[in-house]
Specification:
The protein is mainly alpha-helical. It has helices at about 15-30, 35-50, 50-65, 80-85, 90-95, 105-120, 125-130, 140-145, 150-170, 175-195, 205-220, 245-260, 265-285, 295-315, 320-335, 340-350, 355-365, 375-390, 400-410, 415-425, 435-445, 450-465, 470-475, and strands at about 1-5, 225-230, 235-240. It has 2 domains: about 1-290, Rhomboid-like (Rhomboid-like fold, Up-down Bundle), CATH 1.20.1540; about 295-475, Serine Threonine Protein Phosphatase 5, Tetratricopeptide repeat (Alpha Horseshoe), CATH 1.25.40.
């Protein structure tokens, strides 16, 4: 079996529908279906002990005689009992009293035993709420999607649902994923009702809906190369291949199950659910923004970015500067304002501090938004190089220097902040934000360095007496 595993779950925005579906299936099995095995065992123990099986088997043989020309086909064999139990036409007519009719001699005996048998049978959740293609009902179309035959059936399906659903739900969104899941399950039951209408069988399990999720994955990923988890008996691994290859592989696997193995697996439901998932997502492809394609391409883009970025860094470390620069410039066009790229381009531009490129890159880095320590450290290292190496001189503006000083002062870089503020007061004494800078220094040195506190307080009151900062300081 091959399963597409191209996305990891985002636990900041968890795939709630997938988790809720898993929990619902587990709770239904262990809190509602748990004693079904014993109920069914009691039911069919009564069926044989009461000899109701012999009465109905005899009626079935007569039913075959009436319907077939070749009497040899109506002889009782070891498979006749199974045929009787699964023959939809016979079972329906039997329940409608068209096989053993009220005017027959054995009717009264059969009816009383049959009534008790049906009462016992209906105690079983599986018998009552599974999907019977020969007796389809609106209720069982839905309820059968949450029933399972045993613990192995349950956990096998839930593992598949988790592996498939965690990624597909992110790409479709919760509402569309739930809708597609349910519609896939219903389409699986619908195909079973059309093809297996003559079969009196109980279909139950989430596998039709899960097959639909696999169909969704094929349409969503299309010809993209994605990671596949596959297992064959005891061997498993991960490979990368085009998603579309899952289509023939899945069809082949279902054909093998149907024709090569004698199992109770309802392949019809699988194919119906699979086709439902394909159709549902095919329609969604026609609706703009219904599928989050940007999330599909993001991992591949990130992989390409990392590969190219690392290659350019390697070239730069070997002093192949022009080759590295060319790659970084292409990446900058593809990923504008990416901080890592800007830093690398600034590193290259440092070899020519008189170039416009050097000044422009420095200006971008010095203007970084945010005041967290990591951002301020980048601004600080850029500032120190730019202040000492820019030719013929730095091209910063008073507003930029004021913002830098404020960020430095609030991130334990008070010396550089103090130098910038003093430079501004000396070179541009009438700049309106000088008062703000002095107020920052006053606040920083209060109760720490009295001399500097007094110095900057005096400067603020003397140089900018009309400022809001000076008036606030005077009041205090």
């Amino acid at each position: 079996m091959f399963l597409p595993l191209d996305r990891k779950p985002d636990w900041k925005n968890p795939p709630l529908i997938t988790l809720i579906l898993v929990i619902a299936n587990v709770l239904v099995f262990y809190m509602w279906q748990f004693n079904d095995d014993q109920r069914e065992q009691d039911t069919y123990a009564y069926y044989t002990q009461s000899e109701l099986d012999l009465i109905e088997l005899k009626a079935y043989v007569e039913y075959k005689v009436q319907r077939r020309v070749d009497s040899e086909e109506s002889q009782v064999t070891r498979d006749t009992y199974t045929e009787m139990r699964t023959n939809g036409d016979f079972q329906n007519k039997l329940e409608q009293e068209l096989i053993i009719t009220p005017d027959t001699e054995i009717y009264s005996n059969w009816r009383s035993k049959r009534d008790h048998f049906e009462q016992l049978r209906d105690r079983s959740v599986s018998s009552k709420y599974a999907f019977n293609p020969s007796q389809p009902s609106l209720v069982t179309y839905f309820t059968s999607l949450f029933l399972h035959a045993d613990s192995g059936h349950l956990f096998g399906n839930m593992i598949m649902l988790i592996l498939l659903g965690l990624g597909i739900e992110i790409l479709l969104g919760r509402s569309l994923f739930l809708l597609g899941y349910v519609l896939s399950g219903l389409s699986g039951n619908l195909l079973s009702a059309l093809i297996d209408a003559d079969q009196f069988i109980y279909g139950l399990g989430a596998s039709g809906a899960i097959a639909g999720v696999m169909g969704m994955a094929i349409i969503i990923y299309g010809f993209r190369k994605i990671n596949f988890f596959y297992f064959m008996i005891f061997y498993f691994d991960v490979i990368k291949a085009r998603a579309i290859w899952l289509l023939p592989i899945y069809i082949l696997s279902q054909a093998i199950i149907e024709f090569a193995f004698n199992t109770n697996t309802n392949v019809t439901v699988h194919i119906g659910g699979f086709a439902g998932g394909l159709a549902f997502t095919g329609i969604l492809k026609l609706i703009p923004a219904a599928i989050k394609h940007e999330l599909i391409d993001e991992p591949q883009q990130q992989s390409d970015f990392t590969r190219k970025f690392n290659h350019a860094q390697s070239l730069l470390s070997r002093l192949n500067i022009e080759e590295a620069k060319e790659i970084f410039l292409k990446l900058d066009k593809q990923y504008p304002n990416n901080l890592a790229i800007l830093q690398q381009l600034f590193t290259i531009a440092k070899y020519n501090p008189a170039s416009d490129e050097y000044h422009e890159l420095a200006y971008k880095l010095l203007n970084l938004a945010g005041a967290d320590s990591e951002t301020v450290n980048i601004i600080h290292s850029t500032y120190r190089h730019y202040a000492s190496h820019a030719k013929p001189r730095p091209r910063w503006t008073p507003e930029l220097l004021a913002r830098i000083a404020e960020k430095f002062a609030h991130n334990q870089k008070i010396t550089e902040a103090e130098n910038i503020i003093n430079y501004m007061i000396k070179s541009i004494p009438d700049f309106e934000r000088n008062a703000v800078g002095l107020a920052i220094l006053i606040e920083n040195y209060k109760n720490r360095e009295q001399d500097k506190y007094d110095k900057y307080l005096k400067m603020l009151l003397e140089l900018y007496p009309d400022s809001a900062e000076a008036q606030q300081a005077a009041n205090l």
